[in-house]
Design goal:
The chain has 77 residues and is mostly helical. 48% of the residues lie in helices and 0% in strands. It has 2 domains: 38 residues, no CATH class; 39 residues, no CATH class. The N and C termini lie far apart (47 Å).
Length: 77
């Protein structure tokens, strides 16, 4: 569609934003999203409490274990 420029970007490096230009691209994006295992969480904790949970979870050996520990701690609050 439009050419990419500073004012008109296609996506951001970490995927926070994505412009979908056609139906095929929409299908592919939705398929990837549905197939990937994800966790939803929400919190209204003070930053200090969240920081403590993150610090504890960060001691786990892998990214997956860190995520699991963080969610476990968050759910236990």
């Amino acid at each position: 569609m439009d050419n990419e420029s500073e004012e008109n970007i296609k996506n951001t490096p970490e995927g926070e934003f994505l412009r979908i230009d056609d139906f095929s691209e929409l299908e592919t994006t939705i398929s990837k999203f549905i197939e990937e295992e994800r966790e939803f969480f929400s919190s209204m904790l003070p930053k200090k409490k969240l920081g403590k949970l993150i610090e504890i979870a960060s001691k786990e050996p892998t990214y997956v274990k860190k995520a699991e520990k963080f969610l476990e701690l968050l759910r236990g609050v």
